[in-house]
Amino acid sequence: MSPAFPTGGFAYSHGLEWSVEMGDVVDAATLTGWVEDLLGHGALWSDTVVLRAVYRGGDAAALAALANALGATAERRLESTAQGAAFARAAAAWPCPVLADWGDAALPYPVAVGVLARHGGVAEDDAALAYVHAGVANLISAAIRLIPLGQSAGLRVQAALEPVILATVAHSASATLDDLGGACWAADIAAMRHETQSTRLFRT
After folding, report:
1. Helices 109-120 and 43-55, packing angle to 10 deg
2. Would you give the distance in Å from CA 124 to the centre of its chain?
3. What Å distances lie between residue 177 and 17, 58, 95, 136, CA to CA?
4. Would the pTM of this model clear 0.85, i.e. be above it?
5. Which whole-number Å values give the CA distances from 66 to 7, 158, 164, in the listed order?
6. pLDDT tens, position by position, 4-46
7. Which residues, other chains included, contact 130 with Cβ-Cβ below 8 Å and sequence gap of 6+?
8. CA pair distance 154, 78, nearest whole angstrom
9. Do the beta carbons of residue 107 and residue 61 sit within 8 Å?
């Protein structure tokens, strides 16, 4: 889950670009609250539940379809499936039959990570924690460029969110697919609005 792993994550802002332009996210405090909501009630939560379900041997194709359906907007689905496909291509260095035989079907990012982590013997909790931490770090990196937010302020946000990241991962350990869902309406609307934003640095 290193930022150096070529998933293209740097190109996606999860709708944050629109939120910054509209003045919803303007500093470290509002960024912290925004990401905290995504961890507790948004895509970062749902992705973690799906990742764990895949890791535990759930039907990867069915869970991929479910994960795609959870994407509230076209750009959110693009963000997930483009990174999932890029992750699978890069992960070919660690051969995994499920990913190698995936074909042309859309492959959401948490499904790709869950499949490879299980195949490679990475502990489930470690895989979930790495995935969530990387997702948060990517959002903070986007905010540093968008707000703009200094590197030191970005690190303070990362530090402030560490307990929330750990709590999200711990909570997801006992979650089932019945616990999927979200209530981050502002983030969903931001992702929709971003599709027609006139000036964009990010794909989402």
Report:
1. 30
2. 17
3. 30, 10, 28, 22
4. yes
5. 21, 30, 25
6. 789 999 999 999 999 999 999 999 999 999 999 999 999 999 9
7. 1
8. 26
9. no
